[in-house]
Amino acid sequence: MGFFSRQPPRPKAVVARPDHVMLAIDGEPVRVALNWSPRASRYTLRLAGSVREPVMTIPPRGSLAEAQRFLERHRGWLKARLDALPVAQPLADGGQVPLRGVPLAIRHVGGRGLVHVEGEGAEAALIVPGDASHLQRRVIDFLKREARADFEAATARHAAALGVRVKAVRLGDPASRWGSCSTTGTISYSWRVVMAPPSVLDYLVAHEVAHLREMNHSPRFWKLVRTLCPGMDAAKVWLTRNGASLHAIGAEEA
Description:
By secondary structure, this protein is of the alpha/beta class. Among the domains are: 20-84, no CATH class; 137-248, Zincin-like, CATH 3.30.2010. Helix content is 35%, strand content 22%. The chain has helices at residues 64-73, 75-84, 135-162, 198-210, 219-228, 232-248; strands at residues 20-25, 28-36, 44-48, 53-58, 96-99, 102-108, 116-118, 125-128, 168-172, 179-181, 186-190. The protein has a 4-stranded mixed sheet with strand order 1-2-4-3. The protein has a 4-stranded mixed sheet with strand order 5-6-8-7, with helices on one face. Strands 9-11-10 form a 3-stranded mixed sheet, with helices on one face. The termini are far apart. The relative contact order is 0.12. The model has no long low-confidence stretch (mean pLDDT 90).
């Protein structure tokens, strides 16, 4: 009778998963970020908000080869979306930034102090003290503070009108949506909406708060939204037409 030693199974080779690929469009290389998602059900391609970078999501059983074939098939779609992007608008001294739909001239003054608005109407300006190299960050921080105040006030008002409880209000900079509402009562908003007219922010808040009653987009849901925000149609049109321009503000130039 012989004796045999059983060799342990060899570990499977780990296939490298790159975080991006390059795609040539009109002879120019375009970086496409890859998101290997365990929850995705299919390949998708989108442009990431203020980053203005194509992002491709790959499902669990997806492969790099199939992802590249998918990109090739959608090269024309991607080119059209990139061509349609508004021109990037970095925040700089002498430029402009909208606040609640009103354009403000950006003025860097140096020294110490808080970012604040001076003047009214056509003379309104955003005064930005501090080091010039920190100007964009300071302007964005100011916009986020203003956004939080507006979102919290509007959320409290609409929640009281519906008799619902909001657990928390969070701000972010999502690429593909302006707001979201969780089943636990946490509502998230894009701070960029504070740059839109107040009616747009009001509609967004009404939309998300209404989800605390109807976690769907049924006729009952839209009736609730319209009750809270009678001007919802005009606000939706504004976001559709101008949303991309909000993502262009503070974006880096190509």
